[in-house]
Amino acid sequence: MTVYNDDIVAVEALKQASGSSWDAINPESVARMRAQNRFKTGLEIAQYTADIMRKDMLEYDADSSVYTQSLGVWHGFIGQQKMISIKKHLKTTNKRYLYLSGWMVAALRSEFGPLPDQSMHEKTAVPALVGELYTFLRQADARELDLLFTALDNARIVGDDAKIAALTDKIDNFETHVVPIIADIDAGFGNPEATYLLAKKMIEAGACAIQIENQVSDEKQCGHQDGKVTVPHEDFIAKINAVRYAFLELGIENGIIVSRTDSLGAGLTQKLAVTNEPGDLGDQYNSFLDVDEITEAELGNGDVVIKRDGKLLRPKRLASNLFQFRAGTGEARCVLDSITSLRNGADLLWIETEKPHIGQIAAMMNEVRKEIPNAKLVYNNSPSFNWTLNFRQQAYDALLAEGKDVSAYDRAKLMSVDYDETELALNADEKIRTFQRDSSKEAGIFHHLITLPTYHTAALSTDDLAKGYFADQGMLAYVKGVQRREIREGIATVKHQNMSGSDLGDNHKEYFAGAAALKAGGVNNTSNQFDEPALASH
């Protein structure tokens, strides 16, 4: 017996016990629907995916080559197609996640319309997108299993026992499209209570990993923009605690908290930290402030001062009433932020950098790992970086440091297409290709993500189609650039009716109504033009 057949037998027993009123119920149809609906609630998904992430974290600790990856998605369909593609090309979803980008929620999902990444969008949009993503991933499961069930029925009709056995094995060992989502809660959307309430909604929708940053929630900025303002550690720890309480209340005891520090690019703080004795956490935070040493006689009206080592220090306060940090302290603040977060309940780190430079990332992580040896990083392979220019400049600087002749290159213009086939550019491209592998080995990066790649791919593919369709190519722009590629590359959306659930619905109708079912997939359905025999005949 198999798991699938065991379920059929169990439902058959239930049917028999229920008497003749259940005569229309087909136990195998029930077993199929159960297989297609493995996850009943978001909390089941959150627990299942938390277990996956914890397993992956342990495996990474033992071998840094088994890092994990994700792409940011902004709609359930995009997340679904990503996971379908991964299963098709790579045969497994192992070590592949989804990332829910606050940037893309703001830019693409707000009822206010496109917004900057400044926590101005509705916070309810975040758990709503988590739920939407898992709805589409579960539908991908149902659709793929439905194809297997149809193939099983066909194999039974022709009596192909070997194929029946192979298909039953595939059904029993089906790998779900449901994978972990690392979900962006920004700076918590308010006070710790607000953070807790939002985290609960995200977890209930299925999120097993919540990323939170140490910016002021009412002045939050995109990590790659200016004007970032951090909060003292005690304020941030309260929000880490709020997320942990949300996980524990809902029974997800191994939920993951990703603590992000924006201190590398944040030169401002909203308030001074409370300190009770020299060297405590508040004192360490304040020690990075840009200050002037003054005497008591120099105190001005409304001045705020700090006393340290018997000296009066006046922090430099801007017209905005914000205080600024000393220039050049960003990396040290990132290290302190990271160590503090891990010591106070965070599981993974995120250090937002201004460029993709392994040496810079490794230098900070090496300092963190002196205190927390198994510290692991989630890293943003950001589209805000000009990857081509950055790595060509790194290649240029490496040649220069080696005493090589770089007279053929203009460092300020290395983005030029004129350099594309040069040794320097090819070397830079190879460094980009191996960046994730190399940085996972050298800089403790457990998870690599791109925050908003599908924002860019949607724009690029739309541009490709529009520039031909609305010009002289007409329908050929669509046929050659989209449909023909879908057919030849095996992109399942070429049969868009099937992808949207039409065939799945037809099968359900047959379960419910038998021969009386009115089905959409008959001979007059134009999607039949994309069936394999039809394609072969043309």
Structural class: alpha/beta
Give the distance, in angstroms, between the N- and C-terminal Cα atoms.
Answer: 43 Å
- Any idea what the CATH architecture of the largest domain is? Alpha-Beta Barrel
Q: Which regions have little confidence, pLDDT < 50, spanning 5+ residues?
A: none
Q: What is the strand arrangement across the widest sheet?
A: 12-6-4-3-2-1-14-13
- Calculate Rg over CA atoms: 28 Å
User: Can you tell me the overall shape?
Assistant: globular
The total strand number stands at 14
- Major sheet summary line: 8 strands, parallel
CATH level 4 superfamily of the largest domain = Phosphoenolpyruvate-binding domains
Under CATH, the topology of the largest domain can be stated as TIM Barrel
User: How much is the average pLDDT?
Assistant: 92
Q: According to CATH, what is the class of the largest domain?
A: Alpha Beta
What is the helix tally?
A: 20
Question: How would you explain this protein's 3D organization?
Answer:
The chain has 538 residues and is α/β, with parallel strands linked by helices. The chain has 3 domains: 1-36; 52-143 and 179-272 and 330-459, Alpha-Beta Barrel (TIM Barrel); 471-515, no CATH class. 50% of the residues lie in helices and 11% in strands. It has helices at 3-18, 27-36, 42-62, 76-90, 102-108, 125-158, 161-172, 192-205, 233-249, 281-286, 330-343, 358-371, 387-401, 423-433, 435-442, 453-469, 475-489, 496-499, 502-513, 532-537, and strands spanning 68-73, 96-100, 181-184, 209-213, 229-230, 256-261, 268-269, 291-294, 306-308, 311-315, 323-324, 348-351, 377-380, 445-450. The protein has an 8-stranded parallel sheet with strand order 12-6-4-3-2-1-14-13. α2 packs antiparallel against α6 (125-158). The chain is globular, with a radius of gyration of 28 Å. The mean pLDDT is 92.
